[in-house]
Amino acid sequence: MLNRDKAKQIVNNFKNKKILVVGDLILDKYLWGEVERISPEAPVPVVDVRKETVNPGGASNVAWNLSSLGAQTYMAGVVGKDENGKILERLLIEKNIKPVTVVDESRPTTEKTRIIAVSQQLLRIDRESKENLDKSVESLLVENIKDILPVVDAVIVSDYGKGVVSAALMEFLKNSGKPVFVDPKPSNFYLYEGITVMTPNRKEAYQCIKAEKTESVESVGRKIMEELKTDTLLITLGAEGMALFEGDSITKIPAKARKVFDVTGAGDTVIAVLSLAKVSGASWKEAAYLANYAAGYVVGEIGTAAVDPETLLRLIPQ
Ligand SMILES: Nc1ncnc2c1ncn2[C@@H]1O[C@H](COP(=O)(O)OP(=O)(O)OP(=O)(O)O)[C@@H](O)[C@H]1O
Ligand SMILES: [Mg+2]
Questions:
Q1: Taking Cα atoms as reference points, which of 96, 55, 62 lies closest to residue 77?
Q2: Distance CA 66, CA 96 (A)
């Protein structure tokens, strides 16, 4: 289906493409430690923290994937007026992502902290607001996006349901004339009519149209396309790979992972590679195959990982 020469042609264009990611910024924190005893205060382990790391998460993980692939990447979203907001903006710049961020004094920067010991996650602590943005913050964000939109090749909406993605924002993006790729939050499904392509995982796809578990993926996909009035859809199926819907045809693409360590962020990799490959001259099938290879690689790495162009090309058979 996709050989390395064809993949090379596509991947060589990555560096010339400009992509804007719009969505919920999350600061991913990891506390790495060791457990040597049970707390005298309560029947819980005491974690002795040895290392602390931070990564751009949520929508900014999509942006990180894009910049690692060589794309010129812009990240539009909201941070709080706090230390985490500054850390996140610094991380974006470090990873070669241009921030198009608005500071919202009324909310904290979304933070997810994982405590990891004995090679497993013991606890996750979230700090966040899921409220809709204030109208003033929303219009400031739209104004900032307006300045960037004319130069970008595509927009990716990475909706983690923390309030950035709204009806007004989606209307504005859909009327921009740019292709709009959406990683959906099922509760916002009604906002996505008329977009270019959506990349739900299986569970999200079923939730979008409130389908029964007994319904087939094929039927769920067709209904989604009808509702959204789109002719392309990609449903990711975890260990079973993905299903690409184009008009009346469905292509099942088997998963490519050789080893599986950490599946978090695989969906972010899928939408980043799919969009970038599409605007770089790939057909939908070629873009989906490339995305599937890339996701197969990142699930084999510990922690969310991003793939660079050379690594991606090495994954494709000659
Ligand atoms: N266990 C697995 N084995 C092989 N490949 C996998 C596995 N899990 C995920 N993948 C790859 O990653 C892609 C996306 O995975 P999945 O459908 O789980 O997305 P997701 O639930 O949106 O992920 P995320 O955690 O980022 O939200 C799949 O289409 C497949 O290519
Ligand atoms: Mg996902």
A1: 62
A2: 10
Catalytic residue status for 268: yes
**Residue whose tokens read 């007026």:** 81
**Domain layout of the chain by residue ranges:** 4-26+57-107+129-315
Ligand 1 within 6 A of CB of 269: no
| Residue 235 to residue 96: CA distance in whole angstroms | 29
CA 275 to chain centre: 11
- Residue 118's pLDDT band, with cuts at 50, 70 and 90, is confident
Going by C-alpha positions, the residue among 155, 157, 160 that lies closest to residue 185 is 160
The second-level CATH assignment, the architecture, of 4-26+57-107+129-315 is 3-Layer(aba) Sandwich (3.40)
Distance in angstroms (rounded) separating the CA atoms of residues 61 and 279 = 20
N- to C-terminal Cα separation, the chain: 11
Residue-wise pLDDT tens digits, 148-176 = 999 999 999 999 999 999 999 999 999 99
Residues with CB under 5 A from ligand 2 (ion): 267
Which residue, judged by its Cα, is nearest atom 8 of ligand 1?
Answer: 238
3-state helix, strand, coil in the chain (%, to 5): 40, 30, 30
- DSSP states of 116-154: EETTEEEEEEEE---SPPPHHHHHHHHHHHHHHGGG-SE
DSSP single-letter state for residue 26: E
Nearest residue to 291 via CA among 193, 188, 181, 191 = 181
- Quote the tokens at residue 273: 């590679």
| pLDDT tens readout for residues 99-109 | 999 999 999 99
Report the pLDDT averaged over residues 262-278: 94
Q: Cα(118)–Cα(33) distance, rounded to whole angstroms?
A: 8
Q: E strands within 199-241?
A: 232-236
Task: Tell the residue nearest (CA) to atom 30 of ligand 1.
Answer: 241
SS3 248: coil
